[in-house]
Amino acid sequence: MSAYTLAEVVAGRRTMICARDTDSVGDAIQLMLTHRVAQLPVVAENGTLRGVISQQSILSLYFYANGQVDLLRMPLAHCQDSATTLSMHADLLAAIDQLRTPGIYAVVVTDEERPVGILTGRDMTHLFRTLFEGMLMVEQIEVTLRACIALAFPDPESQAQALLALSGPSRQHKKLPAQNLDSLSFTTMLNLITAPANWPLLDPLLGPKTIFDQLIERDPLAVEKIGEAVE
Q1: pLDDT in tens, 167-201
Q2: Parallel, antiparallel, or unpaired for β 49-54 and 39-43?
């Protein structure tokens, strides 16, 4: 699987919801209820991260205070927890390692000491479900494309000619292609399919060709990443 940075993980999320260290616990509870979140980064006036407040820490405060303090009016600066942080340039696996550590329930993603995202165990579950469902879909597409290529070139000789034109000869055997059908990556299969000499054979199976042309021309790097993800 290709590496993911935390910047990629938090990209496109809603604007970061933060509490100020001058806010009260009551203010934080209101923010959590309004935005349906269980964790809030706590920031200073200049936006730098000071700590984190969570539903769990508020309940703990309520229990240990035993009604002896006005908890709802207490400033967050006096009761926030220290934050577990990672730079937005860190790898996703670093966040997973942190969240597997007992007692760590959230990782705050930062950019120059300012929070840009927050990740919890629930986020990781959703992320990996989405990621692997997407990979499974690409794998299914890959199987379909490979089967269509095999139908378009049903005998070893026709397959060899198409693969020779695509990737050239093997170093050991000049009459054999450098790659066989089973070893083709997702990206290489797209290149084989869209080759002008091959498309007439594949058109009845896969048309219209514009789907594949637009996929490669619009975002070749994305295609390459998809190919890497399923290899």
Answers
A1: 888 877 777 888 888 877 777 788 888 888 888 88
A2: antiparallel
